[in-house]
Amino acid sequence: MTASGGIFGALVGATINIRNVLTVSVSADQRYGPIYNQGTAQVIYNSLLNYGYPANRRIPITLVGYSGGAQMAIGAAPYLKRALKTSIEVISLSGVMSGNQNVLELNHLYHLVGKQDWIEKEGPVLFPRRWRLFALSYWNRARRRGKISIISLGKVGHNGATGPYGVEARLPDGRTHLEQTTELVSGLIQGTSSFARSTKRRKPSDYERYQMAAFNRPEYYPLDQTVDPTLYRPIAPWMGRLILPLSGNARSCRECYLRCITLLPTISIW
Q: Quick one: 187 and 106 in the same domain?
C-alpha cells in the first residue's frame, strides 16, 4: 500500500473506516451479532468446502482478520468449531475487537498491533468487556489463561502507507511493513515463529491441575465399591440410595427401589 492520494484518498479511507466501525458494531451487538456471525461462519464454511477442505478430518483452521475483520473472525469461530469439530486459531492484524464473544473457545488468538495504530486502541476503550475492571469477561479470562498473545509491530499505523501493508515505509532493520507482516503471519500459521512456539508451553489452568489428581475425577469413585468395615463406622443402622424409574416411565411405573450400601447384621432386608 502506497501513500494515499491527497484529500480524495483521505475521504475514501475515512468512508471505509466508518463502514468498518458499523460492521464491527453489528458483529459485537448482543442482539444482532449472533445471527450476523452465524451467517459469516456459513460463508467461510462454504468457501472451505469449495476449496477442498475435508470436513471429516478435523484439520486445524487459522482465520486471519484485519481491522474489523478480526471481530468478525472471532464471532464466526465458535460456529465453525461446532460444525467442523476442530481447533481454530485467529490472527488479528490491527484488529478492533469487542471482547463480547467467547474467546475461550479459540485455540489461541494472536493480536498484531502497531504502536502508532490509534484506531486499534479504540477497542479497549469503547468496549467495556475488555476493561480490566471486568475480570470475569471472556476476554480477561482468556488473557489470564494465556490464550491471547499481543505482538507489537513497532512504529506501524493502522492503514495507508504507514500501516501493516505499507510497501514504502521501512523499519529500523530495513524491512518494509508489508514484509514484516508477511513473515509474522506465515510464521504463526506454519508454527515456525517464536511467538507460536512459546504459546505451546502455556501454564496449565487451576482446573487442569485439579483434574490431574485421580481423586478429583468421577471414575475414581465407582458405584459398586463398598467401605472397609474395619476402618469406617456407620453413622446409621443402614445407608443406601433411592433408585427412581426413568423419566419416560415415571407414569407407568408405580415402584421404586432402595439399594442398601451399608447394613448392620441386626437389620434384615424386607
A: yes
